[in-house]
């Protein structure tokens, strides 16, 4: 990736947590979990600044660390994205590495079993979790792993994750130069003064948000009033349709097929309808007039290849998202549109289409931006929430003590006695997404 | 259909053409033609006020009239929508009936052959035509039938057709009451003061227009700048996908399958992702989170029926159109949204979904309206254009003559000598859609 100049990251200062100020950080291991409709995303913080006392950490904790670090895949379907690993990250005053792991949500039972076999149930641990699966699997987590899922709002964790990652990874944000050419190139985008920007999160479905200031966001107007889902056509639709049409077995296979296909064998183009003469209207004959429109012909269906069908499915879903995103952005008068979510993972075809679609149809007024950690922002937001919740709790406890003692300082040197996050009484009610 | 009160049709007065004032109307037969991406739509005006001299009309003309009137289907695929026939209509000062015929655009060669076999080539005739096919098939029409296709802008003819039909058919416009219930009922809508309104034309693809006054319209903001197609996902996508997924052979079969299917076996719903607990967010568990999202599971694919797939395809395409239409309407601050196009033909499932989708998500601010002559407005607009072009031409010729003669009246009593519309010199350049 090329980087144009140095990104001058003048972010609002991150809270200076410090394990000395706040010795009562949650017990290790620290995870953040985002259980989506198709994919569960997990971030694991591995401390690298262990103190002497920590070196004598319980055996189970050591084993978990070793297991996660020494593998790239877990079971048949769990996968660690080693290329996304971030080292020397400061969280809660601790220095360490962030590891990014994903597995299909449908394999949650196996994941829980695996975690159990590694002794997770013996650790009094809490995980902040988001996504619909945080509700669906809450009881199983508690029953099998004695683990509390502290649920955190999906969109709040997403935005928090984006802001943290962008501040900690100077090459996080990029755009594509010459998106239509074979030589399309990733170019670093200086995201240091990003507000306002729009977020288009493409998971199983699609959510669209407007972010106006650090931590401040709204769902864009035009979204379905009470729910996160703007559009039902997202990554889940792509993969579901591709499986039906081509018999493929995975997202990776679907993308591989699509990379070798030709959607113009499937879609009805402007030139198919006009024959000629569309030049008079400044119409590009190669524009899609009706996705899958050629497939009403028996002859065409007989000739079509599964690669073409995969490509057409990918192009259709992507272009539809681009259209909706463009309408929202124009409507909200926002020029920077950040696309993320696991639909974009290793998916340069869609990134190019989105880049071209945003730029071309808006005559250059809109720019599509992408983030390296595609679908992991929600779980990072949860990891941060795990720390903040603890901090909030400590601040409140301090305040209470100080009021009792007649002192007014919040950042006292005598912190309250430790309380297990997962124990009783609970920390203050977790924020949830009932916004 | 129920009609609430009498519709008070105070339309702008229609031009009072009269065969006495304008004896030089185009020669019969009068057709209007709209050749779309999937379907060609034809409207035929049958005069019922024939004068004595017309009773001696050429044999060919009589035969064509008989053939069209005595049949409901033409060849294997042509079809006359008898239930839509309109009688006692005044056009160009002539009284008669409008007949509505459709056939697949892919069968255009057969249609031309049929018209030739009925002697159309011996009639010096002109047809105003719109749709991409007016370009694609122009040469064939001229070569085989000696027929000139005078091309008329697609959107202009659409709006003109809507305004004419609505003024001539008091029960043209309706909405659905209780769209989600089995007892959904068509209710007449008083469209006498309709401006502004939005038109969502669902053919192979989708176009969206804002109509602000009689004959005045703009493409809605957010459309692709230079082209009619807002969204590539329209009726062509539904049928193309349905053919691929179910092996069905026609739109009618696809709808029939869909009527017996269950899309919740195919789509991933909110409750599939959340398990439970979505009530906290005011989320309806039955909302679609990802269309086709269940089809990533091999087990689910093995169990799914083709009826379910047809239903899911129909629901997906319809909901996507509803989302886009809703965003446009909110953006343009328009509350009346008129859905039309052949995608809606005999398609109560989509009409219900659109009605519910518009009303529910806008909290009652938006209303979905429908028109009885679903996909025929473009060809009606063309038929009217055929007459108007002639009138424009006569007005111009009159003006020319009057200027030469020193007279100033336009509506002179001595009309210019007749000129064949299809002859040389041509009438003034037809307006086309290069807007």
UniProtKB/TrEMBL annotation, chains A, B:
Pfam families: Fumble
InterPro entries in alphabetical order: ATPase_NBD, Type_II_PanK
Disordered: region residues: 406-435
SUPFAM superfamilies assigned to the protein according to its UniProt record, in alphabetical order: Actin-like ATPase domain (SSF53067)
NCBIfam families: panK_eukar
Protein name per the record: Pantothenate kinase 1
Species in which this protein is naturally found: Orchesella dallaii
């Amino acid at each position: 990736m090329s980087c144009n100049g140095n990104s001058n990251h003048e972010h609002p200062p991150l809270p200076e947590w410090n394990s000395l100020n706040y010795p009562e950080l949650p017990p290790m291991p620290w995870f953040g979990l985002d259980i989506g409709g198709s994919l569960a995303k997990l971030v694991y913080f591995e401390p690298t600044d262990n103190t002497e006392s920590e070196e004598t950490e319980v055996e189970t904790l050591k084993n978990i660390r070793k297991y996660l670090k020494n593998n790239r895949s877990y079971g048949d379907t769990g996968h660690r994205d080693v290329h996304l690993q971030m080292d020397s990250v400061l969280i809660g005053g601790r220095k360490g590495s962030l590891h990014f792991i994903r597995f299909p949500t449908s394999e949650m039972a196996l994941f829980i079993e695996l975690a159990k076999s590694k002794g997770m149930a013996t650790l009094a641990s809490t995980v902040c979790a988001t996504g619909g699966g945080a509700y669906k699997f809450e009881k199983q987590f508690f029953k099998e792993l004695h683990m509390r899922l502290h649920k955190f709002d999906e969109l709040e964790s997403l935005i928090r994750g984006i802001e943290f990652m962008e501040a900690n990874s100077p090459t996080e944000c990029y755009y594509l130069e010459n998106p239509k050419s074979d030589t399309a190139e990733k170019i670093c985008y200086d995201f240091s003064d990003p507000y306002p920007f729009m977020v288009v999160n493409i998971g199983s479905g699609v959510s669209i948000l407007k972010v106006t200031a650090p931590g401040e966001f709204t769902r864009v107007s035009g979204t379905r009033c009470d729910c996160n889902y703007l559009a039902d056509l997202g990554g889940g639709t792509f993969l579901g349709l591709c499986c039906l049409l081509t018999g493929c077995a995975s997202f990776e296979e679907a993308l591989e097929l699509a990379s070798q296909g030709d959607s113009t064998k499937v879609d009805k183009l402007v030139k198919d309808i006009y024959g000629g003469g569309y030049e008079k209207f400044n119409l590009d004959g190669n524009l899609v007039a009706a996705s899958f429109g050629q497939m009403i012909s028996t002859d065409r269906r007989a000739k079509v290849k599964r690669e073409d069908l995969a490509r057409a499915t990918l192009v259709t879903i992507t272009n539809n998202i681009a259209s909706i995103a463009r309408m929202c952005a124009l409507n909200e008068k926002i020029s920077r549109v950040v696309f993320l979510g696991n639909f974009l993972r290793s998916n340069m075809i869609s990134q190019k289409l989105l880049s071209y679609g945003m730029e071309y149809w808006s005559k250059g007024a809109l720019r599509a931006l992408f983030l390296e950690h595609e679908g992991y922002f929600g779980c990072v937001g949860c990891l941060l929430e795990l720390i903040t919740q603890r901090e909030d709790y400590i601040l409140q406890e301090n305040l209470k003590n100080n009021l009792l003692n007649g002192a007014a300082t919040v950042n006292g040197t005598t912190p309250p006695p430790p309380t297990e996050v997962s124990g009783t009484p609970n920390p203050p009610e977790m924020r949830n997404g009932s916004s």
